[in-house]
Write a structure and sequence with these properties.
The chain is α+β, with helices and mostly antiparallel strands. The chain contains nine helices and eight strands. A hairpin with a 2-residue loop joins β4 and β5.
Length: 251
């Protein structure tokens, strides 16, 4: 399976589908995907997390994040695909931004944040379903989409909030961004936490403690997850046998 492609040649950075969503195998695409169940339920796997979305639940899939629909009942589901290029152009300094957004887990603790997200989605749907012949049709969609993404990138930024409800100190957020940028730019070099600590001029203990405390996982576990996802994409994206990958430095 290759990455799923979406055509945004009409000049709009967003596409929408509303209707029944059935079982769909693992895939990924250069778009951010918003899934909102309007009726029934949908079971998804996003990354390594199994999620059941029920009526009015909403979840977000990051650009190029592995996901699938493992099971679904009679449902009516809204799916929004947002151009990865539009997203990157909007936030050029956040190349490795990771959004963690799933109302099935956190809406009870963060109702206002999710209510505002759903309001942004409703306004975007209204704009897309507007009169295409009206002046400002395209501008209205892009403005609403920008407002939605600004809300999402601050309120659901994993490096800013982790799994919690209190934002991290801004100094720590910037440090975490540097770590992610370092990992992303040196993916094939298999960097150690010690290497990164030295590059950022931070003590190894302090850096390790910050990661474990804020995210509940060790650096190695997070690195292994990233590499497993990379390996899964390689396997899904080729017809070659697994022997082809034996000599590759994925881990």
């Amino acid at each position: 399976m290759r990455p799923e492609l979406f055509d945004f040649s009409e000049g709009l950075p967003v596409k929408m589908f509303s209707g029944y969503v059935g079982k769909y195998p693992y895939h990924w695409h250069d778009t951010m995907e918003i899934v909102q169940v309007r009726k029934g339920s949908v079971n998804m796997v996003i990354g390594d997390e199994k999620i059941q979305l029920k009526e009015n639940d909403i979840a977000l899939v990051n650009v190029n994040e592995l996901h699938c629909i493992s099971q679904s009942e009679n449902n009516e589901t809204l799916i929004i695909q947002i151009s990865g290029e539009f997203f990157r152009n909007l936030f050029p300094d956040n190349k490795y931004l990771y959004i963690y957004c799933c109302s099935a887990y956190f809406e009870g603790e963060l109702p206002q944040r999710y209510n505002e997200l759903k309001e942004h989605v409703a306004r975007l749907v209204l704009a897309v379903n507007g009169d295409r012949l009206q002046p400002g049709y395209s501008a209205s969609i892009k403005n609403n989409l920008t407002e939605l993404l600004v809300h999402v990138t601050y309120n659901f930024d994993f490096l800013r909030w982790g799994y919690g409800t209190e934002a991290f100190d801004e100094k720590l957020v910037q440090r975490l961004r540097k770590i992610i940028n370092c990992l992303g730019s040196k993916f094939e070099l298999n960097p150690s936490l010690k290497d990164i600590a030295e590059e950022l001029d931070i003590s190894l203990y302090h850096l390790s403690h910050d990661i474990k405390e804020k995210f509940g996982s060790t650096f190695l576990n997070m690195l292994y997850y990233s590499r497993c996802e990379h390996a899964a994409k390689l396997l899904l994206g080729t017809k070659k046998g697994d022997r082809y990958f034996v000599g590759m430095r994925v881990f």
